[in-house]
């Protein structure tokens, strides 16, 4: 069997996806728009065992063997990944186990969309190893089943995920390639700890928030204005919209049952700092995914100054600056 290795970038959503209309196939309540990141990524190698034991130290596999960041996953930690491999097995019409090794260059499960890059990479590596001939739209639909935001990480640059009405129509497409606008996402990591409640669980309870309908009703205008801002490379138009949507999404989390409160004191301080820096003439805007870490959006000329300001904060553990990146790419160097 062929071995395949791919690299997939995480992404930062400008208009977020939060809440599902069909949890079984991961249909979102709204369209979302994101930027795929060049410098926050997952690398994944997949090979399928044909019974010879060649991929597993001479012994045939009796279950999927999955390594993540150097750790062998066992038990319930593998469930979501083996479920996704099951989908690919069903599509390919095979009954083989897979060996998977994956590594991230950023903290996972802490609000930097590790599931987006992870499931995008797993989808493409697993299907390439089976030599399945799939286009990016088909790959986006498959990746969505593992993680909604993974549907966007299949593609590079600036991407919109259409909510759709079924499995085939809920897919992402590229608005602009990465070279369209050298916008930066600077992630200020205030906590690299794994979230106690996953995004997947949060999507299920979003409907319990009394604020959900208000956000959804206002998104058509926001989506339209974000498309225009990206078209015109207009940060002053983009910034206020992405801040508003991030705060709206977190207000739904906070008012869900049970309440999800991902923020930490450093999150709030950085929100206030970003507003002050902007008042002082530095063009920077914030957004926050499902976690405590702040994403600061700016253009290239502001990157060094913002990074310096962040590194002066004692509670900032790490700063990751990334420009727009490509879609999923094959690599010749394998992890095993």
Please give the structural blueprint.
Elements: E1 3-15, E2 20-22, E3 27-28, E4 32-48, E5 65-68, E6 71-72, H1 79-92, E7 98-104, H2 114-129, H3 136-146, H4 150-153, E8 158-161, E9 172-176, E10 183-189, H5 199-205, H6 212-217, H7 219-232, H8 235-254, H9 265-279, E11 285-288, E12 294-299, H10 303-311, E13 318-322, E14 329-331
Parallel strand pairs: 5-7
Antiparallel strand pairs: 1-4, 1-14, 2-3, 4-7, 4-8, 5-6, 8-9, 10-12, 10-13, 11-12
Helix pairs in contact: 1-2, 1-3, 2-3, 7-8
Order of helices and strands: EEEEEEHEHHHEEEHHHHHEEHEE
Return the CATH topology of the largest domain. Ribosomal Protein S5, domain 2
Query: Any guess at the CATH architecture of the largest domain?
Result: 2-Layer Sandwich
Number of domains: 2
Distance between the termini: 14 Å
CATH class of the largest domain: Alpha Beta
Question: Which word captures the global form?
Answer: globular
Which residue ranges are poorly predicted, with pLDDT under 50 across at least 5 consecutive positions? none
- Report the sheet with the most strands, covering strand number, pairing sense and barrel closure: 8 strands, mixed
Radius of gyration: 20 Å
- Total count of helical runs of at least 4 residues: 10
Portion in beta strands:
15-25%
Query: How many strands appear in the DSSP assignment?
Result: 14
- Relative helix content: 25-40%
Secondary-structure-based class equals alpha+beta
Average pLDDT over all residues: 95
């Amino acid at each position: 069997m062929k071995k395949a290795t791919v690299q997939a970038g995480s992404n930062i959503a400008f208009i977020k996806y939060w809440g599902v209309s069909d949890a079984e196939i991961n249909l979102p309540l709204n369209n979302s728009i994101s930027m795929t990141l060049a410098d926050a990524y997952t690398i994944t190698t997949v090979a399928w065992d044909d019974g010879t034991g060649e991929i597993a130290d001479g012994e045939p596999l009796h279950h999927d063997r999955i390594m993540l960041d150097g750790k062998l996953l066992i038990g319930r930690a593998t469930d979501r990944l083996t479920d996704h491999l099951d989908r690919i097995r069903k599509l390919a019409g095979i009954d083989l186990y897979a060996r998977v090794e994956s590594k991230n260059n950023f903290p996972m499960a802490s609000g930097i969309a590790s599931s987006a890059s992870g499931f995008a990479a797993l989808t493409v590596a697993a299907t390439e190893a089976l030599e399945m001939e799939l286009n990016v739209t088909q790959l986006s639909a498959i990746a969505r089943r593992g993680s909604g935001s993974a549907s966007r990480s299949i593609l590079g640059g600036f991407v919109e995920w259409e909510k759709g009405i079924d499995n085939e129509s809920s897919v992402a497409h590229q608005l602009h390639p990465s070279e369209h606008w050298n916008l930066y996402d600077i992630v200020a990591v205030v906590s690299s700890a794994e979230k106690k409640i996953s995004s997947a669980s949060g999507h299920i309870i979003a409907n319990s928030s009394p604020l959900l309908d208000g956000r959804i009703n206002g998104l058509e205008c926001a989506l339209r204005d974000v498309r225009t801002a990206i078209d015109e490379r207009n940060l002053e138009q983009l910034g206020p919209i992405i801040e508003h949507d991030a705060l709206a999404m977190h207000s739904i989390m906070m008012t869900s049952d049970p309440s999800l409160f991902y923020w930490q004191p450093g999150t709030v301080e950085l929100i206030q700092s970003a507003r002050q820096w902007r008042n002082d003439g530095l063009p920077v805007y914030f957004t926050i995914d499902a976690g405590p870490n702040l994403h600061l959006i700016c253009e290239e000329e502001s990157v060094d100054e913002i990074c310096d300001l962040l590194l002066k904060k004692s509670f900032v553990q790490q700063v990751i600056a990334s420009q727009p990146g490509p879609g999923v790419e094959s690599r010749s160097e394998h992890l095993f």
